[in-house]
Amino acid sequence: MAFRAGVVVLFALVCILTFATSANNNRPIIGVLTQPTSVKYHPNNIEQQYITASYIKFVEMSGARAVHIPFDAPKEELKRLFNGVNGLLYTGGMLDMKNGTQYFDNGLYLYSLALEANAKGDYFPIWGTCQGFQLFHVFAAELLDENIMMEHFDSWDISYPLVFDVANTKRSRMFGPDSGVTDAILHDFATRPLTMNFHHLGVSRETYKKYPAADAFFRILSTNKDRQGKEFISIVEAKNYPIYGVQFHPEWPLFEWDSSSDVNHSQESIRANSYFSSFFVNECRKNNHKFRTIKEEREALIYNYSPVSTELTAGDVQTYYWDLL
Ligand SMILES: *[C@@H]1O[C@H](CO)[C@@H](O)[C@H](O)[C@H]1NC(C)=O
Ligand SMILES: *[C@@H]1O[C@H](CO)[C@@H](O)[C@H](O)[C@H]1NC(C)=O
């Protein structure tokens, strides 16, 4: 009985989150967290911060503008930017994520602001890709070091069809009846190798058993098996918050051209991977944060910076926003 009541309360809460908000902000701005780079990757051999340009295009392609959030900004500045943007995106990357590093600590600070905002009825979506997906799990499990939680997988540079958890996807925000996803997209994801995986670490259903706080927080929407047949979780959404994570890289098929990688640029792949951008940007239309002045907004936009292309492999380039000061 107590359990039934709990379920009803939970369901009511989810309904509030899902239906009490409408997508009425037609000028959404999304904050994208920068990260430190090593001199090795920088064109001028200097230590700086960057965002891979594909993440900026990923938010722009569905009708949002982007603002970079410096990973090393002071707390007051992070708060100012948080109050100006309608959602946050945590990118992929190669950081060692633990307490005491600026990326982790400030990433956690922003994540906590998002939880707090949502709890007060200020609908604030956040999205994590790959490293971002992993980081959200570390936060949800209330850990301070990804090395405690992450498991190893053999899933670097490989495209997979998704194995949907059908019961969960049907009642999810991401793929449920109100999501706008089409049967064709779901069908293509389920039957064709369209999701681009670039990870050595990840989380499994076993990880969720070990960390009940993560299990209570997230709903698993899809899984995959790595080259050794070991299952990892590939898409999650938080049960009671507009927080979303994908272990793979939807921005890769859309915008990355490394010809030595197993990227699928087919029409179905572009259509399907675009869906994640469209879904997330629409979630951000439900938030009404605003910069205090138009001048503040203009100064924050990524349009003030120029992307730089650097050689990746023979003939192929990858484009970055470097030196985001
Ligand atoms: C986080 O890390 C710093 C140093 O890196 C340490 O002093 C601090 O105690 C840590 N905090 C927790 C809660 O473990
Ligand atoms: C890419 O996706 C298409 C479907 O759109 C599929 O037919 C094809 O096999 C995939 N190609 C590769 C190399 O995985």
From TrEMBL:
GO terms for biological process: tetrahydrofolylpolyglutamate metabolic process. InterPro entries: Class_I_gatase-like, Pept_C26_g-glut_hydrolase, Peptidase_C26. The keyword Ribosomal protein does not apply. It catalyses: (6S)-5,6,7,8-tetrahydrofolyl-(gamma-L-Glu)(n) + (n-1) H2O = (6S)-5,6,7,8-tetrahydrofolate + (n-1) L-glutamate. It comes from the Eukaryota. Its main location: secreted. Pfam families: Peptidase_C26. PROSITE patterns: GATASE_TYPE_1, PEPTIDASE_C26_GGH. SUPFAM superfamilies: Class I glutamine amidotransferase-like (SSF52317). The keyword Metal-binding does not apply. Residues 1-22 form the signal peptide. GO terms for molecular function: gamma-glutamyl-peptidase activity. It is found in: Secreted, Extracellular space. Its EC number is 3.4.19.9. The active site is at C130 (nucleophile), H249, H249 (proton donor). Keywords: Hydrolase, Secreted, Signal. GO terms for cellular component: extracellular region; vacuole. Belongs to the peptidase C26 family. This is folate gamma-glutamyl hydrolase. It comes from Acrasis kona. The lineage of its organism: Eukaryota, Discoba, Heterolobosea, Tetramitia, Eutetramitia.
